[in-house]
Specification:
Layout lengths: L1 H14 L3 H18 L5 H18 L3 H27 L9 H25 L5 H19 L5 H18 L3 H28 L4
Helix pairs in contact: 2-3, 2-8, 3-4, 4-6, 5-6, 6-7, 7-8
């Protein structure tokens, strides 16, 4: 009986989802799908999703995620430019970090998460400052690596997508939670496809 009640609640919340959240979710799926296929149009579709979610997250008190959308907007423009230049120069499209570089990325992410969580706790009415700050920081790094076509961006996306799903359920953003389940699958596929290309193009030692 309780399961049916929960299911009815979720269905009711999905029906009440705003058009803006639906727009962000649909274009978000399109963005990640195109990115996994290394299609440069992922950046334009992503910008539409970013603008929609900027408003959705702010209205739902996820201020870290709302601020992250502004960053995504900038990296979307930069990523489009960088990928276009890569295509023009016909360089190897996918590169990989070594262990030391990846460790530094993780350390920087944790430091940024702590600072952002403290900022959100002190200066915003966020009810989940450190969780919001942590997810925002991981997303920040993942997006940065994606703009440079670095393989490990997908590993970070897989991890943060898993973290985001219960957060969005808690905030009542059920469509966005479903979106992130789909993004989790797409990110896993993206890692697999990029890894295959990286291995295929890696010079034989």
């Amino acid at each position: 009986m309780q399961v049916l009640s929960i299911g009815s609640h979720i269905i009711r919340e999905i029906k009440q989802t705003s058009y803006l959240e639906w727009l962000g979710a649909v274009t978000g799926i399109g963005c990640v799908y195109l990115a996994a296929r290394q299609n440069i149009w992922n950046w334009l579709i992503g910008i539409i999703s970013v603008l929609a979610y900027l408003i959705v997250f702010f209205e739902n008190g996820l201020f870290g995620d709302a601020g992250l959308q502004i960053y995504f907007l900038g990296t979307g423009i930069y990523g489009w430019y960088f990928w276009l230049r890569k295509k023009e120069r016909q360089e190897k499209p996918v590169i990989s970090l070594n262990f030391k570089e990846y460790s530094l990325i993780i350390l920087a992410t944790l430091v940024l998460a702590a600072l952002l969580g403290l900022f959100l706790q002190k200066l915003t009415p966020s009810k989940v400052p450190y969780i919001d700050g942590f997810c925002t920081s991981v997303s920040f790094m993942a997006q940065l690596l994606m703009t440079r076509k670095i393989l490990q961006n997908w590993a970070l996306w897989v991890f943060v997508d898993i973290c985001y799903i219960p957060l969005y359920i808690y905030k009542g953003l059920y469509v966005t939670a479903i979106l992130y389940i789909i993004l989790l699958v797409l990110a896993s596929t993206g890692y697999r496809d990029w890894y295959r290309e990286y291995k295929a193009l890696k010079p034989v030692q």
